[in-house]
Design goal:
There is one protein chain. By secondary structure, the chain is an alpha+beta fold. It folds into four domains: 111 residues; 31 residues, no CATH class; 73 residues, Elongation Factor Tu (Ef-tu), domain 3; 80 residues, conserved putative lor/sdh protein from methanococcus maripaludis s2 fold (Beta Barrel). The chain is 31% helix and 27% strand. The strands form five sheets. Strands 5-8-7-6-9 form a five-stranded antiparallel sheet, with no helix packed on it. Strands 11, 12, 13, 16 and 17 form a five-stranded antiparallel sheet that branches. The chain has a three-stranded antiparallel sheet with strand order 10-15-14, with no helix packed on it. A hairpin with a 3-residue loop joins strand 14 and strand 15. It is rod-shaped, with a radius of gyration of 45 Å.
């Protein structure tokens, strides 16, 4: 995806390689010194054995024997020193190998690779810029799965569950709903807005989309079959109690109802209405509180003022 200037780091790798080569050469030289020390020790042991025999036979003097014995001790010390030098050289060689590996890793870091197949959505630097450690160079997203984060009021928390089906309406396509499901529910409420986040995974994306664009999310928290439903625009509220105007022989009559599942545009009526009855919608600008008992007039030129309750 991007490449950092690696000239200095390449020199560091070359220096580390040279250090490793020198330590390996020193190690091999000390191995040769050890072999020579072992040969010297073997010769000194033979000379000491011969001198011991000759001393017992009184062929050599005690002084000559002492000289042979001292040579044997020097040979033993020389071999011990050679072994210690090899152990030290081995540690130096291992240190040089680790340093070379470390410098190679730093060199590999100059080539920035994507951690996964995705899409670059933002470039934070241009060629020639100085990049500081920890700064962002490119923003990349995984397009295999896109989530929409919806802010939900805390009063709607109780019926929400993961894996519930959802519909997402993007502001760019307000007439088309994209299917998804709830994948995660946030566990922290904003102290000011009193809202928490629900993440929705989409099964399909629009042809054109952007990260951060706005959308509306509708989560299905319940389902009912053979339900009596009513458009939300027909509801009247008085002291928190829902009601509706019903067409009774051409006169609007107010009737209290009970609601069940609520949707964006429709609500379930669990009691108070039966299929086939006509609910009345007030004309634009008419106060709902003064409509009960008035005769009904249907406006066909704009919009029907009464509709049948849909089963």
């Amino acid at each position: 995806m991007a490449e950092l200037d690696d000239s200095e780091q390449r020199r560091q790798v070359e220096a580390a390689q040279a250090t490793l080569g020198a330590s390996e050469a020193a190690f091999h030289r000390l191995q040769a010194d050890e072999a020579r020390a072992q040969a010297d020790l073997k010769l000194a042991e033979l000379n000491f054995e011969r001198a011991s025999n000759l001393l017992r036979a009184k062929i050599v003097s005690r002084e000559e024997f002492d000289t042979t014995e001292a040579s044997l001790e020097r040979a033993r010390s020389g071999l011990a020193v050679a072994k210690l030098a090899i152990a030290e050289a081995e540690q130096q060689r291992l240190s040089a190998e680790k340093q070379l590996g470390y410098q190679k890793e730093l060199l590999a870091d100059t080539l920035i690779r994507a951690p996964f197949d995705g899409l670059v959505i933002k470039r934070n630097h241009d060629p020639g810029d100085v990049v500081t450690p920890g700064s962002s160079v490119l923003d990349i997203i995984d397009t295999n799965e896109i989530w929409v984060s919806a802010w939900v009021d805390e009063t709607a928390m109780a019926p929400l569950r993961t894996n519930q089906p959802a519909r997402v309406l993007f502001r760019s396509e307000p007439t088309r709903a994209y299917r998804g499901h709830v994948v995660r529910l946030g566990r922290e409420t904003d102290p000011e807005t009193r809202e928490f986040v629900a993440d929705i995974a989409l099964t399909e994306l629009p042809a054109n989309w952007t990260v951060g664009q706005r959308a509306e999310v509708y989560v299905e928290t319940g389902r009912a079959s053979n339900a009596v439903v009513l458009p939300v625009k027909y509801l009247l509220w008085q002291e928190g109690q829902p009601s509706v105007l019903v067409n009774v022989k051409g006169v609007a009559r107010r009737r209290e109802i009970k609601l069940g599942i609520r949707g964006r545009d429709m609500v379930e009526v669990t009691s108070g209405l039966t299929p086939g009855e006509e609910a009345v919608a007030p004309a634009l600008g008419e106060p709902a509180s003064s409509l009960a008992g008035r005769r009904i007039k249907v406006r066909l030129e704009a919009q029907l003022s009464s509709e049948s309750v849909v089963p």
